[in-house]
Amino acid sequence: MPTVKVGEISMYYELRGEGEPVVLIAGLGTNISPYRRIVDELSKGFKVLSFDNRGVGHTDKPDISYSMEMMADDTAGLMRVLGIASGDVIGVSMGGRIAMALTLRYPEMVKSLVLASTAPRVVRKGGMPAWFKLVKRLRTVGRVLGRSPQPYYAFVRQFDASGAYDCTARLGEIHASTLIVHGRKDRLAPYALAEEMHSGIADSKLVTFDGGHIFMFWHSKRFANVVIEFLSSLPR
Fold this sequence. Notes:
single chain; Rossmann fold
């Protein structure tokens, strides 16, 4: 099981494929398992780094306050340890906020940015989808992601960190080529926030799926193809 020390924590990671490096940052409460079909597609033409964020999976789960900046530092530290000076970065949901924090803190490490089902800030009003309520409830008894269940305190640490982040006022500072991929029916990150992000990041591209927050798991091949098309269009 590949783990490396990054700062004060040990991080679990997987490297797949050959070619230009692509870094995939997972969302709230998920280890890398749900993303493997996406990684399978991407790794046909790229070297894909995926990993468990702090607080989930086989990575350490300190019971301290987390922040998106802290988790961006984790990502940058892991890339350095593995000899990846820069790469194309994909962030899903909370992972998208980590990716934006990474880009703002270490712009030299981000060649391009793919932001999926995410927004520069969290809007928590109205009802949450039933599946999200279920996931949150099951974590109280540690029954989600059975191979490496996430303790409830660690879910809360991630949840609070994700909700506290807001880089709306700094979107104009993101200069990496950016693809925004979003489900029109997303209730956790409303589509209007994706449009706002598209307006705020100069020359960004917005691709819309007819689905909700986790559309990429149901349409993993199409999602991967959209990402591959974008990455392949970039100057190298």
